[in-house]
């Protein structure tokens, strides 16, 4: 059962007030590191899985993509996206990403921002993405970091005065459902190990281009709680290239 | 200042009683996963950095390596290694790995087991290893996992009854020295993020072949403390191939 948390009124309202929702890409702490991993979009066909408000679709289109398909399970998110973006090369589709079907090799870039930790079966999804991509095609995504998802609560441990002591890691090798609290609401997320994220790519025809745990940017350090983000990794960025037929040695 | 902890009598004595010291490879929880990442050694020239008792040198020689060079900073460790191994294709050299110098492309395989977290400058070392390896050469190593080295104490957090609550992560993005306790003795180790381990390889001419956080083997689960090793990652295994000149696309 695919959860559609973002169509819940309370959750949607809270999400809409986050800095990344109000300010867009520049309001997301990881954006500057993520942007460095993005390919040249000129002339490319781009798929954005879990596109939300469509910020990254707009970015791809503004950087020359000739076709951008943004998909999301949430009707409410896509309604905002459609309002923000009226470029004719950008299309939005309401669909759980697990249910998408495309012809082989119909995209040059597949992108996803902070959505795969809502997906139960990462392996099947990556297999599909591998089919949808052209040889040499780029796959770039962000997810919540395994350190952040392992224990489940996604909460710091505090001392009796409310000061942060450390971040707890537990159940690391037990992958699967976690009942996390996000924006004060219960949300089901899926924990996976770093091994699973990386090996799933390497064993399904991808070469790894980059693995980055983004640090908070210097000029955001004064925002509430941002300094504490130096104490544990919260996000993981991965960039990979679909192995081209002429270069099978790369992935041996 | 390179620390030579293993030549300290007390430390050496305690280390010699660990299951990995008594039983060799089969006594190391990560061995079965590590073995899967090793290349075909037949006819290869192999360098083992921080070889300790030489178990992996012996393995490489027994699996067909034509030359194996084991290096370690510790005289005591190498004395044991020399006694265990009297194969003519295996040589042991006492030297801190940071001080080693070799001709370019003189090894086909570079290996290291649980030694790089004692090295301050990982980047310079990987650059050297890249030069020493032939194109297409293999680089396989294990280190303590960034989750395990981040906070510093390498200790679980316990409740008042002495039961494990979780493992603490802290100071994650602050790389560098940690005053860890290993076998009840103080040891200086160096914490690095997962990003640093992987990106150092990818930006210095390597293609990543595997990233594995080894789980405790099923049949070791009854050993004291082994079940708890399912709760946090303690080790990290990485395997990479030096990019060959004819395949420059791999690492773009």
UniProtKB/TrEMBL annotation, chains A, B:
GO terms for molecular function: S-adenosylmethionine-dependent methyltransferase activity. Keywords: Methyltransferase, S-adenosyl-L-methionine, Transferase. This is Class I SAM-dependent methyltransferase. It holds the Pfam family Methyltransf_11. PANTHER family: METHYLTRANSFERASE (PTHR43464), UBIQUINONE BIOSYNTHESIS O-METHYLTRANSFERASE, MITOCHONDRIAL (PTHR43464:SF19). It comes from the Bacteria. Residues 47-141 form the Methyltransferase type domain. Coiled coil: none annotated. The lineage of its organism: Bacteria, Bacillati, Bacillota, Clostridia, Lachnospirales. One of its GO terms (biological process) is methylation. The keyword Nucleus does not apply. InterPro entries: Methyltransf_11, SAM-dependent_MTases_sf.
């Amino acid at each position: 059962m695919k959860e559609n948390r973002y169509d819940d009124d309370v959750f949607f309202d809270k999400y809409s007030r986050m800095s990344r929702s109000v300010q867009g890409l520049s309001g997301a702490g990881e954006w500057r590191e993520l942007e460095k991993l993005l390919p040249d979009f000129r002339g490319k066909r781009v798929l954005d899985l879990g596109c939300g408000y469509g910020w990254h679709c707009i970015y791809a289109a503004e950087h020359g993509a000739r076709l951008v398909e943004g998909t999301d399970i949430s009707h409410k998110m896509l309604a905002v996206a459609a309002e923000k973006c009226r470029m004719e090369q950008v299309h939005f589709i309401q669909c759980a990403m697990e249910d998408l079907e495309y012809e082989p090799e119909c995209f040059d870039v597949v992108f996803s921002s902070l959505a795969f930790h809502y997906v139960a079966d990462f392996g099947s999804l990556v297999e599909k993405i591998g089919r949808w991509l052209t040889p040499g095609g780029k796959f770039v995504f962000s997810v919540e970091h395994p350190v952040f998802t392992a224990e489940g609560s996604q909460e710091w441990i505090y001392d009796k005065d409310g000061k942060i002591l450390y971040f707890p890691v537990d159940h690391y090798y037990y992958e699967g459902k976690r009942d996390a609290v996000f924006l004060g609401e219960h949300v089901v997320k899926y924990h996976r190990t770093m091994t699973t994220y990386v090996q799933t790519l390497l064993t399904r025809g991808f070469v790894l281009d980059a693995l980055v745990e983004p640090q908070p940017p210097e000029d955001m350090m004064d925002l509430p709680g941002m300094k504490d983000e130096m104490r544990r990794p919260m996000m993981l960025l991965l960039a990979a290239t679909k192995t081209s037929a002429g270069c099978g040695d790369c992935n041996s």
